[in-house]
Give the backbone structure.
Amino acid sequence: MMERSSRFISLSGLSGVSAGVFALVGAYIAHEWLDGYHVKYYNGSGGYEPGDFRILIWRLLFLAGSVLVCSLLFAFYFTWRKSKRNEIPMWGHTSKKLLTNLLIPLITGGFFVLGLLYHDQWLFAAPACLVFYGLALVNASKYTLSDIRYIGLLEIVLGLVNMFWPRYSLYFWALGFGVLHIIYGLIMWWKYDKKPAS
């Protein structure tokens, strides 16, 4: 009862799994686009235009935004379903605190990444996404399952390592937002969501 009043415990492990799947699909699409860009860039007869790089960046931003929206929609659905099953209100004082503590680092990071892109420092956009996302999870973990803190710390470490190998950012992004979410989601589902056999 104390935990229910101080922590939002309706987060579903399936939210993490679905976010990870969307991230891996997004990473695959981005990889295909990057391969196509490199073929045009390095092959003089491929029809490369100087503006192609800017178009690619905006396409990648749109793709990242689409992955985020799909992940949030599925997270909302699975959380709503778990809240209903457990008869816990989804929107209350604790969930508002959770959302506030999640959004402060997340929105800050979003503007930071936009600033990097504005100044053509695109190499460090993916590491910054991982670091700020990790900070958001650590900050929000005070108001939800403490396991969230560990995935947040892993995201931060991945982002910091990625800073030294920025040309492999897509792989770090896929590992952080894809694989880690799926592993975390399955662990959370096993620990908190799985119905005991009757």
